[in-house]
Structures are given as C-alpha cells and as structure tokens.
C-alpha cells in the first residue's frame, strides 16, 4: 500500500548520541525508501555541524524531511537521573512529545537511537491505535528488577 501522508518518526538525543542517531536514521531510511517520512529530532541545542550531519543523511541522501526541536530546559526541571546511569536528562524528552511536536503531528513513531531498523515500518505505522493513547513495544530490559526499585514501582503492575 502506497503511503500518501508522511510517517512522523521522532527520536531524542544529546550531542553524545548524534553518531548513533545517524546510524539509526540511515537504517530507517534505507529500509523505507518508498515512504514519505518526516524525522523529528528532539534535543537540547546541537552544534551546527551535528545538525548538518543528520540533515545530510535525511534530506540530501534520502530526500526526506527533518525538523529539529529544541524545547526549553525548563521542561526537564522536575526530571532527575541517577548519576551512575547512562541515561541523560535528554531521555525524558520522549515523555513530552505532545508538548514539543507541532499540533498537526497527530501520530508519531518514537525510535531510540540505539537500534537498527531492519525492515519496512509502514505496517506498524498503519496499525489502528485510535482507541488508545499509546501503542508501544516492550523494551528487552524492561523486566530488570533494578528498574522497579529505581522507579519505586511495584512489580505486580507489570
């Protein structure tokens, strides 16, 4: 089935994840060449050359659209990270997609930058989720006991 409107794909990064984002976007776009895709990169401000790297992949190499969104730092003021964690504050941007993305974006696929897309995402995009707030795929690490302790979340709710 030919996609007529763009599939919106979002990712969030900080400057340490630009190269990983470049790899993920290359795998996404290489495997979805026939679909219109609009990539939304959500980040704290990036260096112009970092934006250029991602723009050259998305626009120049694949002819797709990319938008950069730099939300105000106040959006993360109540968010915390463990100092020993590999997770940065930028990780929380995904929780605020509806506040960050333009209102005309009614549906979006969020992709982590540490993955490789190895196929067509249109079937996933075309799933009817109109009767729910969120469709998701469980992360392979989600059942780690330490996650429940860190989040103060009772495992019986998983």
One letter per element, helices H and strands E, the order comes to EHEHEHEHH
The main pleated sheet reads as: 4 strands, parallel
Choose one word for the global shape.
globular
Could you tell me how far the N terminus lies from the C terminus, measured between alpha carbons in angstroms?
36 Å
Strand content is 5-15%
In DSSP terms, counting alpha (H) and pi (I) runs of 4 or more, how many helices?
Answer: 5
State mean pLDDT (0 to 100 scale). 88
Order of strands in the sheet with the most strands? 3-2-1-4
- What number of structural domains do the residues give? 1
CATH class: Alpha Beta
Structural class: alpha/beta
Count of DSSP strands: 4
CATH architecture: Alpha-Beta Complex
Quote the CATH topology. Answer: Spore Coat Polysaccharide Biosynthesis Protein SpsA, Chain A
The CATH H-level homologous superfamily: Spore Coat Polysaccharide Biosynthesis Protein SpsA, Chain A
């Amino acid at each position: 089935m030919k996609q007529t409107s763009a599939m919106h794909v979002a990712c969030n990064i900080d400057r340490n994840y630009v190269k990983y984002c470049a790899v993920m976007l290359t795998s996404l776009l290489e495997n979805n060449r026939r679909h219109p895709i609009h990539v939304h990169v959500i980040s704290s401000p990036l260096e112009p050359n970092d934006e250029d790297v991602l723009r050259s992949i998305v626009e120049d190499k694949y002819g797709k659209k990319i938008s950069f969104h730099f939300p105000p730092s106040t959006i993360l003021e109540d968010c915390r990270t463990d100092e020993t964690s590999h997770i940065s504050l930028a990780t929380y941007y995904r929780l605020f997609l509806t506040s960050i993305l333009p209102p005309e974006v009614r549906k979006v696929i969020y992709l982590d930058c540490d993955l490789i897309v190895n196929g067509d995402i249109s079937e996933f995009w075309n799933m009817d989720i109109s009767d729910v707030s969120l469709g998701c795929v469980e992360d392979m690490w989600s059942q780690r006991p330490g996650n429940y302790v860190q989040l103060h979340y009772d495992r019986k709710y998983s």
